[in-house]
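Your task:
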Amino acid sequence: MIDLREVCKSFGATRAVDGVSLRIEPGRITALIGASGSGKSTLLRLINRLVECDSGQILLDGQDIRAGPPEALRRRIGYVIQSIGLFPHWTVARNIATVPVLLGWPAAQVAARVDELLTLLGLDPASYRDRYPHQLSGGQQQRVGVARALAARPTLLLMDEPFGALDPLTRQTLQQELARIQQALGSTIVLVTHDIDEALRLGQRLVLLDHGRIVQAGTPADLLARPVSAQVGDFLGRATLGARLLGQRNVAEILRRGEAADGEALRPDQTLQEALAAFLTRRVERLPVVDAQAAPLGAIRFIDLLRDPP
């Protein structure tokens, strides 16, 4: 767990982080969002001491992060940035192995971990471990950057606009990969993004910053359903709040079990936003729902999309 207590940081006359107190729970993805200059990237860098705070305290698993040298702290924390930062003259395997080698892992253990992570990220070890960064696509380089950050099994993974430079299709694919990896490993991830859709897709908790202060924090559904101000509503996209809120709920929530309907079926894990698109495309009032084996489960009705969640 990360506990920030009245943390402040200034650069000259500019207060980048202004008295932030925040508890980041383990095993979840917390997304820091806000406009450019809101302090989200500075806050991330304060956590791994790339920037030192002027006042306040940051605790990692109950220990002040300033209790030891910053290098030791950073070896416990994975860090992924938009520009990736792979060493161009090192192979993929050597890039991924950077921190385990620094920690003195045996060579066989390092090699096994490299292959494990390449496999986890959808890159065949035999094909990719001996390649160099310039031989990879942007999306492949970003996967290697994530693998390097995970190599030493860090307590925490910090990600600063990790997919911002990628094309939309690659970006969405890597977002899905990150969500899958986080679920599989139970990682604690703090993600900085300016993309509200990315934050809603990945974040289990959102923290909205403005001028270095927390404006609102909570689950995506909380912020979408109950923005604390017009400013928050505008940032989240007031005109699309309803559709985005449907994206936080799934078909299983409004399933009428045993009810019949005709047509192409939905799955219970699909979002209500996807269900709305299906209703509008097919111009029907009911849609069938089936399980993973295509066995009928029931149906959903269009009118149920308009009702508040229980």
Q: What stands out?
A: The mean pLDDT is 89. The longest strand covers residues 14-24.
